[in-house]
Write a structure and sequence with these properties.
Helices cover 35% and strands 0% of the residues. It is mainly α.
Length: 126
Amino acid sequence: MIILTQESRPVMVTYRCLLPREVDNLLVPVCLSATHVAWGQVRLEPTWFHIGESAGLAAAQAKHTGATVADLDVTTLQQRLLASGVPLAYFNQLTQRPESPAFERWQRAACAGEIDSFDYPANGRP
């Protein structure tokens, strides 16, 4: 018998989960590194879509810049994902559409670790 005492919360999957330790210049978007707890989020289709798009853009960026996938500028990758309308973080009360004025600001703040909650603060500022 399992008793769940807390509501499930969305999680962010880091880019480094796609990089195997033992192999250089390889992206692994399907068999990525995750604990059994994190796998609960990773297995969801919307998460797979974002992981696949992230891996594809990372591969294109690596080819374009001549860098290995482990040496990519992740900030540039995040900018490209945001420009494509891919949310990098989830917020409960914030409109998650790229055309929303606060979309990019909140996404960047979450990636920078400036926000530690999925709840949109009352003051409306990250």
